[in-house]
Amino acid sequence: MFMTTLDVNSSRINYALGKKASGDFADKRGVTSPANKTPADKIECVKKHINRFPRYISHYTRHYSQKEYLSGVSGINDMYRLYVQKCELVGVEPVGNWVYRNVFNTQFNLSFHMPKTDTCKKCDVFKVSLAAAATDEEKGNIRTEWDDHLELAERRRAKLNADKARAKADKNVAVFSYDLQKSKALPYLNTNEVYYKRQLAFYNCGIHDCGTGCGYFRMWHEGVASRGSGEIASCLWHWVKTLQERNQLPQYLIGFADSCGGKNRNINIALFWQYVLQHLPCQQVDQVFMVSGHSFLPSDEDFGVDEKQKKEI
Questions:
Q1: Cβ atoms 294, 156 nearer than 8 A
Q2: 284, 278, 277, 276: which is closest to 251 by C-alpha?
Q3: 160-188: b or e for each residue (b if 16 or more CB lie within 10 Å)?
Q4: Which pLDDT belongs to residue 242?
């Protein structure tokens, strides 16, 4: 009757009584390691190899994300290939690709590609808000604000195009754009050892003369100076002084730049243009800031040519 009620057989009851008599009720499940489990020393070797790669923190996302970014490798398969080569050199059997990938994904907060910083934050917010809006009135208000934002961006773009045409027709007007290119790592090599080294950061401030269509690069490395507004002002000063020495400095300067507060949109750049007006034969300087996220400038075209040439090396 008892076994029928609990739906058990006599063997299970006898097993339980035997355990009671011996006094051993410890749960021994999972105590014995499986035969295919990766040894702890090999897992530690994988972690040490991953830690050898230099890491970078995104300047734009460090306030809300602790994720770090790897430079010089394209993905986990690339890292695993280097890991296998290292194991072959020291005569150690490597772990499988799946084990290496599992350690990377579960014990590290790393990624291979820096987050996009040229996307418009306001457009992203408008898009999410529009999708989450509950009423037609709320959607209409969001759409109106979004349209105003895009209209402002189009007006700035139209002014840039109009001023470019003006500079080509009037020699007394110089229209230019300036921006700081993405930092480069030197030396530019593809050897395996480079993946484990911290390379020298190389900076490039590009200035594009829209009247002549010529681009000018001002370059330096991190051992010489940083990449703040002071360095940007120094590059601009060198450029306008070069124009003056060539007797090509016009009376009217119109500069276009993005809205980055650390580099362009700050008191240092404003004071620099005031200094230019006081010490050079210029009558007027206009500084125009493009709408954030919609700031593709002629300088970026020069940077594109530079990156294309770099790939051909």
A1: yes
A2: 284
A3: beebbeebeeeeebbbbbbbbbeebbeee
A4: 93
List helix spans (H) across the chain: 2-6, 10-22, 40-51, 76-90, 97-107, 121-132, 136-169, 229-245, 267-279, 298-311
Tokens 């008599």: give the residue: 21
**Per-residue burial over 195-207, b = 16 or more CB atoms within 10 Å of its CB, e = otherwise:** beeeeeebbbbbb
* Whole-number Å distance between alpha carbons of 108 and 301: 37
How is the chain split among helix, strand and coil, in percent rounded to 5?
Answer: 50, 15, 35
Cis peptide before 281 (omega within 30 of 0): no
- CA end-to-end span of the chain, whole Å? 86
- Quick: pLDDT tens for 230-273: 999 999 999 999 999 999 999 999 999 998 888 889 999 999 99
d(CA 175, CA 163): 7
Residue type at 223 in one-letter notation: G
Q: What is the dihedral of CA 103, 107, 108, 111, to 10 degrees?
A: 50
CB atoms within 10 A of CB 241: 14
Evaluate if residue 2 carries a pLDDT over 70. no
Q: Which amino acid is at 278?
A: Q
Residue type, 24: D
- Cα 275 to chain centroid, rounded: 34
Angle at 16 between CA 14 and CA 22, to 5 degrees: 100
Sign of CA dihedral 90, 96, 99, 101: positive
| N residues, the chain | 313
pLDDT tens string 158-205: 999 999 999 999 999 999 999 999 888 887 776 776 666 778 889 999
Higher pLDDT: 143 or 295? It is 143
What is the rounded CA–CA span in Å between residue 146 and residue 126?
A: 6
Instruction: Return the higher-pLDDT residue of 111 and 276.
Output: 276
277, two tokens: 């007006």
